[in-house]
Amino acid sequence: MNKNDFKLKVFSLSERLYPMVARMLGNATSTEDAIQDIMMRLWDKRKHLEHHPNITGFVFLTARNYCIDVLRKNKSIVDDATPYLKVLKSGEDHKDVEWEELNTIIQNVLKALPEQQQEVFMMRDIDGYAFTEIAVAMAITVEHARVLLSRARKQIGIVLENTYSYERGDY
Amino acid sequence: MKEETIKTLMEKYEAGNSTLEEEQILFETADASTPNLRRWGLLKKHIKKHHLKVLTIHFGHLLKAKPLESAGLV
């Protein structure tokens, strides 16, 4: 794979990687650095990539694995994340209370979901990826991705329904 | 948008069968008459705004790297 092919087939996917890498790693600077690192890794593997049957999938999976490596190395951040989450604000005062309530609910729901459901939910509903992209990044089939997403959405829906049923007088 | 259409889209959404375009339409039409949908929309908006990195930071260490060979699956 020459420089032009790489630019066309691999580097052009940088923008599609951005939401997932940004969500997984955090601030914009580290995301840009990470994408550059990922592209460097892919460039080193360009000979292997040339004959790969699914270049897009390989790129997504490389990016995801890279983020997991970084998260593992920075595991200590996990213990400090809660205070940050608590100070997230909506920017619209009248919605802050609702946002904080939702924030707590969603954290509790996600904690209760199996890991694969958490991942699929975040990749689809937060990052906005297509099922084919989610499937290759997670090394599962599209059908499996749909099933996992459906289970996650239904579970979150049930919790939202139960939490707010008082608004309809269903208590 | 008609209530029936929203209901159909919501069913597709919950079943994991909606397209990204349908999901966008669904959340754009959420209002006071569809409170749970509105909350979903609010949640998504905020998560996107903040990239909700903390969610992955909270749960990311649990994630498992997948073998690169598996990218040929689909």
Automatic annotation (TrEMBL), chain A:
SUPFAM superfamilies, alphabetized: Sigma2 domain of RNA polymerase sigma factors, Sigma3 and sigma4 domains of RNA polymerase sigma factors
InterPro entries xrefs: RNA_pol_sigma-70-like (IPR039425), RNA_pol_sigma-70_dom (IPR014284), RNA_pol_sigma70_r2 (IPR007627), RNA_pol_sigma70_r4_t2 (IPR013249), RNA_pol_sigma_r2 (IPR013325), RNA_pol_sigma_r3/r4-like (IPR013324), WH-like_DNA-bd_sf (IPR036388)
Superkingdom classification of source: Bacteria
Domain RNA polymerase sigma factor 70 region 4 type: residue ranges: 105-156
GO terms, molecular function: DNA binding; sigma factor activity
RNA polymerase sigma-70 region domain sequence ranges: 16-75
Gene3D superfamilies: 1.10.1740.10, Winged helix-like DNA-binding domain superfamily/Winged helix DNA-binding domain (1.10.10.10)
GO terms classed as biological process: DNA-templated transcription initiation
UniProt cross-references to Pfam families, sorted A to Z: Sigma70_r2, Sigma70_r4_2
Family: Belongs to the sigma-70 factor family. ECF subfamily.
NCBIfam families: sigma70-ECF
Protein name, UniProt field: RNA polymerase ECF-type sigma factor
Native source species: Jejuia pallidilutea
Lineage, top ranks: Bacteria, Pseudomonadati, Bacteroidota, Flavobacteriia, Flavobacteriales
TrEMBL record, chain B:
Taxonomy, superkingdom: Bacteria
Protein name as annotated: Uncharacterized protein
Organism: Jejuia pallidilutea
